[in-house]
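Entry 14. Ran structure prediction on the chain below.
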Amino acid sequence: MSTATTAESEHEPSPPPQEVDLAAVFEDSGVKDVLHEIDETMIGLGPVKQRIREMVALLLVDRARRDMGLATETPTLHMSFTGNPGTGKTTVALKMADLLHRLGYVRKGHLVTVTRDDLVGQYIGHTAPKTKEVLKKAMGGVLFIDEAYYLYRPENERDYGQEAIEILLQVMENNRDDLVVILAGYGDRMDRFFSSNPGFRSRIAHHIDFPDYDDDELVRISQIMLDQQNYALDDEAREVLLRYVALRRQQPHFANARSIRNALDRARLRQANRLFLRNQGPVSREDLSTIRAEDLLASRVFTMGMPDADAAP
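Output, structure tokens:
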């Protein structure tokens, strides 16, 4: 064999593999830890967790297909998250950014969270630079647009939301290998938004609905929140919290885990005030870390049958 022939054979590309160990690909990807964290730290959300695992499986298979020369285009990864406030949409978006980065579908894996005010200007010529600046920050990661339906206000002829929509649609199509967009909001409003803006619907491949938490899940979430701040409920307070959750979820402006966080923050405020008003001497570590029933029973949910004054809309 001549020297030239030998050199040519040395530079010939290796043929693609004919089989792949998907279990090994899964282990090597690093997504196992993220999925485990989602399961361990996020209460409930069974359907959401299942959809996340299905997406991970899709992308791992897509990676294997590319390695074998079977796939040529990046799959569409733009998503819609629908559900009531406080159901974990932003938290899951953050986890998705991490997963997509580990799987090699975004370069940086960061999350940029915005609302209409971050994208739409108040005068002619203001919207395009605002929207493009946000998109520039989000490139290589995930752009999360909360309450996305507020971008579209057909009743206002001078509204500039349509300009932001057109820019977003163009980038979602032309830069889908470098940016994932997640639109989020109430389910019924998102349905109307997609009906009025079919360009978005055609670019969204994954629609994920976030269910409300049940009473038991909300109590478990409250326990995690308290543990993170080194607080605990005494036995009577735990019973009162169960009653609080059952009453509060039936009242207006209930925001799932967000409302529970607000309630615990106010209970901590009352606990601190109680300690100052009644303290006649040293307080113990247990005193400083225990929420009592009276700290919860002072809520307007019990005293007036009304939502707390600063309940999230």
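The radius of gyration is 25 Å. Will compare against last week's run tomorrow.
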